[in-house]
Write a structure and sequence with these properties.
Helices cover 47% and strands 15% of the residues. With 305 residues, it is of the alpha/beta class. The longest helix has 22 residues. The two termini are 18 Å apart.
Length: 305
């Protein structure tokens, strides 16, 4: 059993799409995704600087497009190597996972991401908010400290990582007065995602959802909402919309990966973050990053030997 993992916002890096443009057909593929996203994804994925691609309205479509580019080529290259695949994505990466599993078309995915990103960017602009990772082993005391600081628990990532979100001043207070035996790290995102601050973004997403007819997932698709597996496209879209204001339960997603008997986890570009969590939580699972076509080639060759 192989898991295909799709990263979320904050994983992007300047120029990370450049290696993929060396493959035949990728430029045309990205141009089509750009049209659906109404963004020049080639520009943002190759020459734009770190601050520019931190913008939510840019970062989210860029990450989903990168996952689609890497993911489709992975599925094409390995179609004869395995039959059982689990798809899981973190936050906006859930849209990538839904697309690769066949719930959404690529055009629908990019349009959905555009609506989501613009709505969340607008919601984030209304107040100065942000997110911070709290690293420590005592989950209960960390969640209590986050709530006492007038913040929300936005991500339960497992492996000793919980993400707090809310007003910047409250995040600063948490960083200056961290819970015992913890470390607080400010994240490169521009809002309090997966909290009630994002509620205004759900209305346009609900409106867009009325215009599409999602398909049932092919393979196993895991929901961030509670780590459950999804059977219908409609349920997937409902969860994606609900997830805008609900915490990401990546810890429960990893529990489901374990129950599914996953032996190898492949993280799509921009890869690294999710495999780090897998390494600390399910160390017996082998891990593969697909940040470049060369990494894909090496993985396929190793699988065939």
């Amino acid at each position: 059993m192989i898991a295909v993992l799709c990263p979320g916002q904050g994983s992007q890096k300047p120029g990370f799409l450049q290696p993929w443009l060396e493959l035949p057909g990728v430029q045309n593929h990205l141009e089509k995704l750009s049209d659906a996203a109404e963004l020049d994804l080639i520009h943002y994925g190759t020459v734009a600087d770190e601050q520019t691609i931190k913008d939510t309205a840019i970062a989210q479509p860029l990450i989903v497009a990168a996952g689609i580019i890497a993911g489709t080529r992975y599925l094409e290259a390995t179609s004869n190597l395995q039959k059982n695949i689990v798809f899981a994505g973190h936050s906006v990466g859930e849209i990538t996972a839904a697309t690769l599993s066949g719930v959404l078309t690529e055009e629908e995915a990019m349009a959905f991401t555009r609506v989501r990103a613009q709505g969340m960017a607008q919601a984030a602009a209304e107040e100065k908010t942000g997110m911070a990772a709290v690293l420590g082993s005592d989950e209960k005391s960390i969640t209590e400290a986050i709530k006492e600081a007038s913040l929300y628990v936005a991500n339960m990532n497992g492996a000793g990582q919980i993400v707090a979100a809310g007003a910047e001043e409250h995040l600063q207070n948490l960083a200056q007065n961290p819970p015992a035996k913890t470390r607080v790290i400010t994240l490169k995102v521009a809002g309090a995602f997966h909290t009630p601050y994002m509620e205004p973004a759900q209305t346009p997403l609900n409106e867009y959802a009325q215009t599409i007819s999602p398909s049932a997932p092919q393979g196993i698709l895991i929901s961030n909402y509670d780590g459950s597996t999804l059977d219908t496209g409609t349920e997937c879209i409902e969860r994606l919309i609900r997830q805008v204001t609900a915490p990401v339960r990546w810890d429960l997603c990893m529990e489901t990966l374990k129950k599914c008997g996953v032996q190898t986890a492949v993280e799509l570009s921009p890869a690294g973050t999710l495999l780090g969590l897998v390494r600390r939580t399910i160390p017996q699972v082998s891990r593969v990053t697909l940040n470049t076509p060369e990494e894909l080639k090496l993985f396929v060759e190793a699988s065939q030997s």
